[in-house]
Specification:
- The chain is built from five helices and nine strands, in the order βββαββαααβαβββ.
- It has about 200 residues and is α/β, with parallel strands linked by helices.
- The protein has two domains: about 130 residues, Rossmann fold (3-Layer(aba) Sandwich); about 60 residues.
- The protein has a five-stranded parallel sheet, sandwiched between helices. A four-stranded mixed sheet has the order 4-1-2-9, with helices on one face.
- It is globular.
- The two termini are about 15 Å apart.
Length: about 200
């Protein structure tokens, strides 16, 4: 379970999060939508433990989290395969990690880019590489910030299929932020529309 209790956050003099409480349990699939600049990414970063709130508590009983931020956390001096290997090194060992990396690179259409570095790849390819690393680690909590960004319609659908499969088959709890909602089908998803900051939520 992930629980955010009465979270608040401000930057300089601007209050972004007013009073936010949120619970995410195993098997939950929740998406927050709304205009840019109202605090969705900040809330996701607090949920990930990357940003500390000014007040409130973050409690998580999940054992393994994967997080995709707007700027994909790829190492620019490593190839796609080396990035996968590095990201998965804490979870999977040796030959199994190598095979798993190749499997997900192929599944994300990146087999021909396995030995390319991020700067040699398009924005969409970098996004798919970051998603491959998230999926390959089989997290029990997955946090996604605009997972469909930079992707064409085909890959938006493919990424959505993987998100749904991970949620339904593995029971992965998923909290995501997205402007795109047309992909949301064939899944029991809660959509929370957000309109203005400071955000006040209790879900």
């Amino acid at each position: 379970m992930l629980r955010l209790e009465h979270i608040s956050k401000q930057f300089q003099s601007r209050c972004i999060l007013g009073d936010v409480s949120l619970t995410l349990a195993k098997g939950d699939l929740l998406c927050m939508t709304g205009p840019s600049g109202i605090g969705k990414t900040t809330l996701l970063e607090i949920a990930a433990g990357i940003v500390r709130p000014d007040a409130g508590n973050r409690i998580s009983t999940f054992s393994h989290m994967a997080c995709l931020l707007q700027d994909a956390p790829l190492l620019p001096w490593k190839t796609a395969l080396e990035n996968m290997d590095f990201i998965l090194s804490a979870r999977i060992s040796g030959e199994k990690r190598y095979k798993n990396s190749l499997f997900w690179l192929e599944k994300m259409g990146l087999q021909e880019a396995a030995h390319k570095k991020p700067m040699e790849m398009s924005g969409g390819m970098q996004r798919r590489l970051a998603m491959a690393a998230c999926f390959a680690g089989k997290p029990d909590l997955l946090l996604l910030d605009e997972p469909f960004a930079f992707l064409d319609a085909f890959w938006q659908d493919r990424i959505w299929e993987e998100i749904v499969e991970m949620n339904q088959k593995n029971g992965t709890a998923i909290l995501m932020v997205s402007h795109a909602t047309e992909q949301f089908r064939d899944a029991d998803i809660r959509i929370v529309p957000l309109s203005a900051s400071p955000l006040t939520i209790d879900i």
